[in-house]
Every structure is written in C-alpha cells, then in structure tokens.
Amino acid sequence: MCAVDKTKSIIEEGGHVIIPTVGPLDIGSLLGPGADVVERVFPHRSSRNDPIDDIRDEAELPEPLKLLLPVKWEQFGEVLVLRLPHELDEHEDEVAAAYASVLRVKSVLRDEGGVTGDLRTPVVRLLFGTDTVAVHRENEVLYKFDVSKLMFSSGNNDERARVASIGCDDEIVVDMFAGIGYFSIPLAVHQRPRKIIACELNPVSHSYLVENIRLNRVEGIVEPVLGDNRSLEGESVADRVLMGYVKTTHEYLSTAFRLVKSGGIIHYHETCPCELLPARPVERLQAANPRGRVDVIGFREVKSYSPGVSHVVVDARVVKRA
Ligand SMILES: C[S@@+](CC[C@H](N)C(=O)[O-])C[C@H]1O[C@@H](n2cnc3c(N)ncnc32)[C@H](O)[C@@H]1O
C-alpha cells in the first residue's frame, strides 16, 4: 500500500502527472496499469490557504483527475458556478459536493454554455443543492438574483464600477437594459441623479430589480419599468441614456436618440470585430443621428467578448437638430 503525500505538490512533466507518495510503493493499487515509478524532488506545498488544495483532498476522484478540477470559479453570494472539463462528467456530483463543502456554498451550478437569447439567459445545470437565489455584494451594492435564471457578468465589473463613478447630479437617466439593476443601482447608490428610469423586458429580472431597489434603499431614485424599452414614452427627456446590451444594441439607437436631450450623453455598448474598431460603433451612432452631431467623449474596451471580438462602450455627447 502507499498513499499520496499531501505535504508535497503534484507536478506535471512532459504531459505526465507525477504524484508524490509516502510508504512502500504498490503502483497497481494506486493507478492500475500504465503508471511508472519515478524519483523526483517534489516542492513542498507552501501553505494550505488556497482552497483548491482542500477541494482536491475532499473530492473522491482518481488522483490524476484531481488535476482537472478548475482552479477558478464564479461565486455569487452562496451560489457557485463551475465550468468543468468533460473528463469530469461522470464525477460531476462528487466534484460539486467537494466545492460546496470547502467553499461553504449552498448550491453549485455547472456552466454549460454561457448565455443565450435576447434575455441573456444563462445555460447552467444544478449539480448540488436546491436554492439558487444569491445575494451578491459588489462595490457596496447588493444584487439579489436567481443564478440559475439570470446572468451576472463578472467581466463587466470594471464597467459597473466606472458607471457608479460618473457624476450625474440632478440628471434624469434612462437605463434601457436594466436587468436586475446592474448599472442603475450602483449609480443611484454612489451618485445623486434625480431619477433613473430602469426598463427591463424580462419579468424575472424585473422582479429582482424591484427587490434590489428596496434592498439598496434607492426607492426614491430608481423607477422600475417592465416592458420593451422601445415602448418608453417621451422625446428629449433624458440627460443620459445607458445602453448596457450587446450583439444587437445598434437596433435600439433610434429609441436612445429619441429619449436623449440635445447635449445629453449616450453610453453605447457594442460587440465588434477588433478590425472594425474604433470606426463601426462611432459610425453607427452618427448614422442614427443624421442631422445632428455625435461627439465621442469616451471609448473603452469592457472586455474581450470572443476571439477577435471586443465588447466596447462609447460615451457620446449628442447634439440634436430639428
Ligand atoms: C443581462 S443585461 C446585460 C448585462 C449587464 N450590462 C451587466 O453589467 O452584467 C441585458 C438586459 O437587457 C434586457 N433586455 C433585452 N431586450 C430588451 C428590451 N427590448 N427592452 C428592455 N430590456 C431588454 C434583458 O432581459 C437583460 O436583462
């Protein structure tokens, strides 16, 4: 019999996994045929403050598969989302239980393919637990949502923080794609707008938006609207329009230009092939305001969206002409 030496680190070498052991070696009992005995000096595990070490210990898996356990995950409150390689398919329940136990979460979802459809629904499957509603804290804002039904893009965290820092004293803001309040709530918490009209099409997102407004005590500022933003009434009513949406955002530019006041600002998001940057989003903005002017006052990459495609945001001051 032999056992894995947990005081030393597993090493990889030339496509092989080399596992430190203690005691007399009996390869058959360890790995079955195909394993060899080699001598190596193994590095000591410096400390046990990386939870992946405990997760590897906890997971009831053949040792080589432990190396495939993800070292990164997404955690929203007490709900975890894991992306697992297919080699772990047969063991997904044990794997989820190990993460849940070490990270002390109430449920674990498997990410099976990002988000889908106009409502940006996540493609996830529940592996552990029953309750998938999380209260996630970011930048002093609480976001309550059902992680199995609604997305929360970790890649947009810098943009949420940037929006929260935009001075907008006494402004009327329209958030055309409000979701659970990704931008509206931090803006209301950290700045002093007069009103934010937060429009959301998905009733599930809208119900959490309503809850999050209460949870963050911004009832007097954020006004939730359930419906398609193209049905929002009014002309030249907003000092600022947020368009936090990707893929087809340009199809909503006519609504944004109708709503914004002359001199107001549109924060326009677009997913764009890198070779078309920065021209395409700026041209689309200009094309939506043919008689007026669009001055670009900010331009930044929010995140890399997919290979060769960037998610960008253009801040544009709009001059409208009758
Ligand atoms: C998920 S958010 C985008 C992510 C967000 N900006 C972040 O920081 O993570 C986009 C939202 O727009 C909503 N939506 C899509 N089309 C809409 C429309 N025509 N009117 C209002 N809301 C819409 C979707 O339901 C979704 O909740």
Describe the structure.
- The protein has 322 residues and is α/β, with parallel strands linked by helices.
- It has 2 domains: 3-106, Met-10+ protein-like domains (GMP Synthetase, Chain A, domain 3), CATH 3.30.300.110; 154-319, Vaccinia Virus protein VP39 (Rossmann fold, 3-Layer(aba) Sandwich).
- The protein has 9 helices and 17 strands.
- It has helices spanning 27-30, 51-58, 63-66, 92-103, 157-164, 184-190, 203-215, 253-259, 279-287, and strands spanning 3-4, 11-13, 16-18, 21-22, 74-76, 79-82, 107-116, 121-128, 133-138, 141-146, 172-175, 195-200, 222-226, 238-243, 260-273, 293-306, 309-319.
- The strands form 5 sheets. It has a 7-stranded mixed beta sheet, with helices on both faces.
- Strand 7 and strand 8 (121-128) form a beta hairpin.
- Helix 2 (51-58) packs across helix 4 and helix 5 runs parallel beside helix 6.
- The longest helix is centred in the middle third of the chain and has 13 residues, at 203-215.
- It starts with a strand and ends with a strand.
- The relative contact order is 0.08.
- The mean pLDDT is 93.
- S-adenosylmethionine is lined by residues 118-120, 151-153, 156, 160, 177, 179, 182, 199-202, 205, 228-229, 244-245.
